[in-house]
Amino acid sequence: MAEVMDHRAAILGSIRKALGQASSKDAIAEEYAAIPRTYTKTGGMERAALLAHFEERLVEYDAGVYRAAKDGIAAKVAEILTARGKPGLTLPEGVPAEWLPEGFSFEVAGLQALELDKTPGVLTGCTVAIAETGSIVLQNAAAQGARILSLVPDYHLCVVFAEQVVLTVPEAFARLEGTSTLPTTFVSGPSATADIEMTRIKGVHGPRFLDVLIVVEA
Amino acid sequence: MSGVQTQDGTQWNRQDFPEAAKEILEQSQTRKNVQHATNVIQGKRNKVVAELPDWEDLREAGAQIKAHTLRHLDHYLAEFEANCTAAGGHVHWASDAAEANRIILGLVQQHDAKEVIKIKTMTSEEVGLNATLEANGIAPIETDLAELIVQMGKDRPSHFVAPALHVNRAQVRAIFQKEMHLPDLGDRPEDLATAARTYLREKYLRIKVAISGGNFLIADSGGMCIVESEGNGRMCLTLPDVLISIVGIEKVIPSFQDLEVFLQTLPRSATGERMNPYNSTWCGVHPGDGPQEFHVVLLDNGRSPILADKEARQTLQCIRCAACLNACPVYHQTGGHAYESVYAGPIGAILTPQLHSMKEGRSLPYASSLCGACYQVCPVKINIPEVLIHLRGKVVQEDQATLAGKFSLWNIGMQAAAFLFADAGRLGLAERVGAVGQKVLVSKNGFIEWMPLMLGGWTQTRDLKALPAQSFRQWWAKEKAPSAAAKNGRVSHG
To answer: How many CB pairs below 8 A link A and B?
Structure first.
């Protein structure tokens, strides 16, 4: 233990020696607050254009994009699963019953990787979505669950409510402020790589297929 | 020169840039691959950067956040440590590569692991972690596609975002066919990615210890952020029981909120995407979600002394996007291996010598034409050309302080040049002497095709126009100076 402490003291001491006199906590906070943040914070795009922008970005990533009204979620889920040839999906805790159509099997998953590897896919909600970058943000919360759920299965269907979609990255961070310590994943399209000749290829280790169902008012 | 062990057991920093570059310039396939890849990323990067009207504001904010953090680095590291520990993480401190290796090896052995899965980490390469693990009977398995290609090909990374950018698909296929025993493997990128998926999936599901680097340490939440594309990162930081992250001390940022800047600038600069497929953030240990044992090793290894140099401190603002590599005309020709350094390209040229207290990589500050393309694309506004010149000055001063350096031809030549250029009369005399003295070297066509000693570096690949019989200054003094002096009412001293 003594040796570990030595390295800590050595590094912090070396930093202090290089920087000179330390500032007070208040002075540091004041200096931090004075950093100019003149970049765009909020969007100001009206709802319909915002959703169209989000869709366009998702399609560019090769994600499937669908729309449903609030009372038509289950019917749309049934349509998507039929199109994908899926007999059902795995669920995190807290998925509302009205998302789930009859005639398909939905099971709340355990968190065993080997079992999840055999499931046909997963259905989740999200915390916030970013139109500008085509991103959905998942956290360990109701209807989203542990990170493993949206990782190991090869197919992910994500339900995004229109009011969860913001235009800019800073707007998303403003919404995440209160839950920033939760495990969080920003997902922008299906897993991909550009490591071979800089060609973006879909589907390496994460889900190879991503569908997003956007739920609008009516 | 003493180097650091790389994946294939060879050394970094084996030779100076000019020698290493000469070897690479003869490998036409490698050059073709590098040029193709850097052109593609540059094109994509320029397109998505142009989309953001506030790009310059984002650069400025990013630069200032990083500069502020570096000015108070001890404060923010202590804050990170306290918050990460409170969230159930274990924070370790490593002054140097040996200590980092000792800590990580100890943790891996404590869990009796014979294999570990790894997310691409340049700090691991910097400390030679794979060699240490292998020497102790532990197999490190790289999971980033490019890093896997490098590892299986017993090669070295040449770019820190796309480490295998110097090989093409046919070469990748040959490596995978041999190492994965897949004689019928195709060479479409899809085939190669699928082969990697199948090969690694079994390992993700089985291996219990993972090692990663980190893009950002977040002081106010005690969290970490990892930015990636393939999902291999998510696999490594979600499925195993134990996660060990080795991160440079300069990677800390004050607040979770600051990611709103870097998660815009990093993906656009690194891969030319609006957002890379996956970003993960987490704090310590979360019950029922991810590894239940989490260690962060904070690595100094030559970083803290750089803070003392106010002009060069900005080097540590780097977020490792590699945009400067892709934009650099020198990197474009030589690729990454010529730098003989874990960190290649313009940023490597300033970081590497400083990490080694200017004891290694001393030729690297000269591996640049100072065109400034690197500064222009840098998302945290590191003025690389300024630091390059500053470091050249350091190299020269240190050399002059040694006896051999003081009496070297370079130093004598430069001192003589400084003496001549310092005074108009001396320069005029030198021009007149030169015009006569050069006669033995000038060919019939009026060009000098050969020069002696180190001046020969110039004439090796091009001819030099001979000094004219009359210099501009002589011409001016004769033709223009009298009338100019009359007009201005003062005497020219040309």
So the answer is: 247
Which of A149, A205, A209 to mutate to test binding with chain B, by most B CBs within 10 Å of its CB? A205
C-alpha to C-alpha distance for A178 and B257, rounded to whole angstroms: 11
Least Cα distance to B149 among B165, B126, B138 occurs for: B165
Q: Which one is predicted more confidently, B413 or B347?
A: B347
CA distance B367 to B365: 6
**Residues B230, A196: C-beta atoms closer than 8 Å:** no
CATH superfamily of domain region A47-216? NagB/RpiA/CoA transferase-like (3.40.50.10420)
- CB contact (8 A) between residue A205 and residue B201: yes
What string of DSSP letters covers A121-181? Answer: -EEE--SEEETTTTEEEEESSTTT--GGGGTSSSEEEEEEEGGGEESSHHHHHHHHGGGTT
Distance CA A176, CA A127 (A): 8
Task: List the CATH code of the domain at B17-305.
Answer: 3.40.50.10420
Q: What is the DSSP string of B27-66?
A: -HHHHHHHHHHHHHHHHHHHHHHHT-TTHHHHHHHHHHHH
Q: Residue B132: what are its φ and ψ, rounded to 5°? A: -65, -45
What's the Cα-to-Cα distance from B247 to each of A160, B144, B250, B255, B445, rounded to whole Å? 35, 17, 8, 17, 60
Q: Do A207 and B231 touch (CB under 8 A)?
A: yes
Q: Chunk chain A into consecutive blocks of 10 residues (it has 218) and report each block's average pLDDT, rounded to whole numbers.
A: 73 96 95 98 92 97 96 98 97 96 92 89 98 98 96 96 97 97 96 81 88 92
What does the pLDDT read at residue B493? 52
For the segment B451-472, what is each residue's pLDDT rounded down to a tens digit?
888 788 888 888 888 888 888 8
What is the least distance, in Å, from the CA of B464 to any CA of chain A? 40
pTM for this model (two decimals)? 0.92
A179–chain B Cβ distance below 8 A for any pair: no
Interface of B with A in 253-272 (CB under 8 A): 254-257, 259-261, 263-264, 267, 271
Name the residue ranges covered by the structural domains of chain A. Answer: 2-33, 47-216
Measure in Å the smallest separation between the Cα of A102 and chain B Cα atoms. 30
Write out residues 77-96 of B within 8 Å (CB-CB) of A: 77-78, 87, 92-95
Interchain CB distance below 8 Å, B308 and A35: no
Mutation target among A16, A128, A193, A201 for the B interface, most CBs of B within 10 A? A193
In B, residues 168-187, which contact A (CB 8 Å cutoff)? 168-169, 172
